[in-house]
């Protein structure tokens, strides 16, 4: 438990993704089975344990400490599990293994659970108590996704990320056959039906790059503003995966129902009403859910727009050229209005395509995809066969109003900016941007921040409203969580307007008009 | 005489009318007794100042030679007006002392100032002084504060330096006491390479070394390239331009507050080190049990926790509600 607890503590304070990956990889290399597998599943949220309620914990703590002191302590710390971990009297520490703790939380019956938890706490030191209680309350909050888990595992020198993605859904904690494979043993059999297949990604391009290529060698189609998914239907088992292999089937029962085919298809997940594609913001309401209610299913119906087939009726098409895969796709009958096929655009020259891109028939189109007709379906992001030519970003001129110091390579520099737009005489915050500027510009911005601070709140500084920045973003959603009522997608600082007076920055109404 | 007419809080701080002096006064007074050199306890502009030799040295180093009209080194029991005072080690920082006030008739009061019971190689250990009234701090006066063995925190720092050998580790530690404590712990844990220190730490580190505290080889962290993996700096330096010379540092902070995660997060710390020069809850309550005073007064911090503990232990206790003491040392 000690190694796991110190890993969790370290992760909780480590902002850098690379540093997190390194910490986890070293932990996995040094920790025996089955502890390391349980740890991995706990961090990625793939461990189903009996959940302990806050009121049970409060009751246990009250048996060990005066209630008034407990209340004062909780008031100070602000987190119940942490408070209890800190105030719990030290017992005879014997460092039980993580597996023992996991077993306790998997197998103990409801009645015996409180006493078992107390007994376990008595055997642990303070940081292990916190790790155990976080495990028991079901929320580690260390910012470590299943995707990062696969990256850490790939870093151990065995199978690659795509290898791991392909197998992931057939594996279950504590992943002993997986670790055997990494150590040089046999590749585990893919036990799961309807597995995820690593996806093929496109690289960004522009007209200049395209001019060197022959338009006749390529297909083009609209780039729809939904999320990339892989829809798999395999002998009655149906799954919908995100492009990184997360299983999102539970949030989309309507799509799963419609997937009455046998194969693995690549396409865009969209919310669609009467044939019209809804903006991304509408799809967002359906994402990240464990389940979805009838109301939302009716008001936000989801569907698929397919553009490729990996496997069809038992035949693996991935090594065949795109024009052949496309022929199979065009010939397929999906028998449900929720599923259709992304149509190909007609163009003879790149300038034709540029015109189409400049004036798409719908606002939910975010550019064009360009794919070699002879391209095989390969995993990863090879440069050459597939391109994305996104529409130009939207831009507004905003005023910097807050700045916060960064971490790691940006230690000591104010690198995280909140910017605002005018709403009458007032500047309303509309978003935050962390990048888009060069290192030299970062130094200039930091100098500006230090010279124009009006107030300080810890690492955050309020700024005199003087500096205008051009903010580029990919889209705009209505949002009740933002004071401005709008949320930008992927905002970044595209230009620093040292020349522009703050009074001439854009108004909130300009942004609202873009909705 | 009743205890609260021998010593009581005023706007200037704790005052003893029989002796005509204040203890750790918050504003300039005629006669001041100072427990230790932290700036919230040791201020300039008093008439006569009495403190340990080290505390007077430290005040001179920090505030210049004219910090008081006259000074007197505390040396054994000393008669001041109608009371006798004596200074006893508090284990907090170099020179730190508790001040015992003994009237001819009436209860003996010990003002502990800031104190610590954990062994600290940079200063004398706390000396328990039997008394009727014990005046305790309560900086960490809640049961959530149970500090680990300080050496485990040095080990944690060294483990991080081994995990990220290419990243410099910048540890925030206050200039008086904490910085030297952290350095001596790292040395005790076996780290022998040169340690870089921010310019603001130099004077006091030099003073500690002059007093016989072994800090190993220290180099200045002032050049553009600092040739040391471990760098100690006052926390304020992390907001300054100075920190920009480090490319991808791990930023740590050595403080008792690091025991609570929300506090560490507020500071934007990547490596929280729980190293304190104050009593934690177990040693505070153990000290009260050991001394068994007939009354406890609580100066500053989270008084409610200590008062509640005294209530459960059936020891009369009251908060002095002295304002103006920060936790500079933490």
From TrEMBL, chain A:
| Enzyme Commission code(s) on record | 6.5.1.1
The record's SUPFAM superfamilies line, in alphabetical order, gives: DNA ligase/mRNA capping enzyme, catalytic domain, Nucleic acid-binding proteins
Q: Which reaction does it catalyse?
A: ATP + (deoxyribonucleotide)n-3'-hydroxyl + 5'-phospho-(deoxyribonucleotide)m = (deoxyribonucleotide)n+m + AMP + diphosphate
A Pfam entry, by short name: DNA_ligase_A_M
User: Keywords assigned by UniProt?
Assistant: ATP-binding, Cell cycle, Cell division, DNA damage, DNA recombination, DNA repair, DNA replication, Ligase, Magnesium, Metal-binding, Nucleotide-binding
Keyword Amino-acid biosynthesis attached:
no
Single GO MF descriptor:
ATP binding
What range(s) does the ATP-dependent DNA ligase family profile domain occupy? 304-423
Family matches, as InterPro entries: ATP-dep_DNA_ligase (IPR050191), ATP_dep_DNA_lig_pp_1105_fam (IPR026333), DNA_ligase_ATP-dep_C (IPR012309), DNA_ligase_ATP-dep_cent (IPR012310), DNA_ligase_ATP-dep_CS (IPR016059), DNA_ligase_N_sf (IPR036599), NA-bd_OB-fold (IPR012340)
Biological process (GO) annotations held by this record are: cell division; DNA recombination; DNA repair; DNA replication
Record's keyword annotation contains DNA repair: yes
Record NCBIfam families: DNA_lig_bact (TIGR04120), PRK09247.1 (NF006701)
Q: What's the protein here called?
A: DNA ligase (ATP)
- Per the UniProt record, the source organism is Paracoccus aestuariivivens
Automatic annotation (TrEMBL), chain B:
**Name this polypeptide is given:** Ligase-associated DNA damage response exonuclease
GO MF: exonuclease activity; ligase activity; RNA endonuclease activity
Keyword Nucleotide-binding on entry: no
Upper lineage ranks?
A: Bacteria, Pseudomonadati, Pseudomonadota, Alphaproteobacteria, Rhodobacterales
Name the top EC class. Answer: hydrolase
User: EC?
Assistant: 3.1.-.-
Keyword annotations for this protein?
Exonuclease, Hydrolase, Ligase, Nuclease
InterPro entries per record: MBL, RibonucZ/Hydroxyglut_hydro, Xnuc_lig_assoc
